[in-house]
Amino acid sequence: MTTTNASTTAGGTSTGAAGAAPAGTTGADRVPTIVLGGTGYVAGELLRLIAGHPKLALRAIVSDSKPGERVAAAFPHLAAVYPDATFVSVDDAIALASSLPTSAVLSAAPHGVSAALIDRLLTQANAAGGNPRVVDISADYRFADADAYAKVYKHAHGAPARLKDFTCAVPEHLGSLPTPHVAHPGCFATAMLLAIVPLLKLGLVEPELYVSGVTGSTGSGRTPTAGTHHPQRHSDLYSYNALGHRHAPEVVAVAKAVTGVEAALNFVPHSGPFARGIHATTQARLVKTATGADVIAALREFYAGQPFVRVLDEAPRLKDVVSSNYAHLSATANGRTLAVMSVVDNLTKGAAGGAVQWMNRVFGWDPTLGLTAPAPGWT
Fold first, then answer.
1. Collapsed DSSP state (helix, strand, coil) of residue 257
2. CATH code, domain with 279
3. What is the mean pLDDT of residues 183-208?
4. pLDDT by residue (tens digit) across 318-332?
5. β-pairing verdict for 102-107 and 31-36
6. Same domain, residue pair 118 and 57
7. Residue 363 domain-assigned (yes or no)
8. Is the C-alpha dihedral spanning 241, 349, 141, 226 positive or negative?
9. CA of 228: how far to CAs of 32, 43, 216, 258, 268, in Å?
10. CA 269 to CA 280: how far, in whole Å?
11. DSSP-derived secondary structure for 30-94
């Protein structure tokens, strides 16, 4: 199915189980919006972005573990815009989606849960005449093949028949969307794909890639473990899942779907002593000798007209993108050895912001709606 510019419908006032919507987010030109998996860091970032979005009207925030509890208790920094909103159950959200002609559904539900939850919502809403449009931020719809998913995540896919309805890509890498719904790549995958896809598509490098990446603690989720919470990570730096991270096969699959080139990816991720952001360095062998300036020029041409990707002459810095939907890239070369550096915010461009960017496209809106705020710069 080809995505069309779906018409918007009344968002209405968020009442009942979902509580009151933030001031200014209701109106006849806004699309009712449902957030699944509503208590984690990515969900909190989605809520922050929706609060300032001119076309999305929050109607339900799902948490089966906290139905009826105040959203502001889970996200105190959002209390000013969601003073009365409460979490709702899955059943309530599905009933809402089934009652609406169209809706925007953003899923931050966990891997292994999101697939079946989305399938149930779509099945019931479609049967009732509704037309929800989904962007899934979990890994559940990133692979086109259920066996490939099971090989990486070590459990069966929750809704294999639904995979055909989803496309996975970074928004900047796909000109048109061939399916009604989208799977957003992972945060590390986003940072890597922004560098890797142009290199492969332009034929600049041999398809043997080496990536070293560093991520902030929010990438590990909200529940602390011995290796991820602040006392362990503070003033420390260490690798984990070296050459075995689950985003590596995802990057290979997504890059091949976009470029037609199947690359070998050797990825070593690291845990960094900061909360937000990803810095990834991709190294490869150039097909022919080039300068860093040559590669920078090629990257700029590739991303021309893409407002969220900036290609710099100097090395990119995390603080210039943290809490924003922007990605910064740069490159350097020595003979046929190439290094491309990319930085993104893992919660925004790598997850919630990229998902909202996709939702803008799904509904035929300007892809920058609600996303143009720059990074704070001092965090």
1. helix
2. 3.30.360.10
3. 98
4. 999 999 999 999 999
5. parallel
6. yes
7. no
8. positive
9. 35, 19, 10, 33, 17
10. 9
11. SEEEEEESTTSHHHHHHHHHHHT-SSEEEEEEB-TTSTTSBHHHH-GGGTTT-SS-B-B-HHHHH
Which residues touch 95 (CB under 8 Å, ≥6 apart)? none
Select from 34, 40, 43 the least CA-distant residue to 122: 34
Residue 362 corresponds to which tokens in the numbers above? Answer: 């799904």
292: amino acid identity, one letter? G
- 271: domain range? 188-345
pTM, entire model? 0.91
How many domains does the chain contain in total? 2
pLDDT at residue 367 greater than cutoff 90: yes
SS3 for 252?
helix
CATH of the domain at 62: 3.40.50.720
Q: Does 99 reside within a domain?
A: yes
Mean pLDDT to the nearest integer, 250-258: 98
For residues 135 and 355, the answer to whether their CB atoms sit within 8 Å is yes
Instruction: Report the catalytic residues.
Output: 187
User: Residues 159, 192: one domain?
Assistant: no
